[in-house]
Amino acid sequence: MVDNSFFDEAAEQSLIKTAIVEKYFSAWARVIIGSQKRHPQHVQKIAYIDLFAGPGRYKDGTLSTPLKILSRAVEDNELRQRLVAIFNDKDKANVSSLKEAIRNLPGIETLKFKPEVICEEVGENIVKT
Question: Is 122 within a domain?
Answer without folding.
Answer: yes
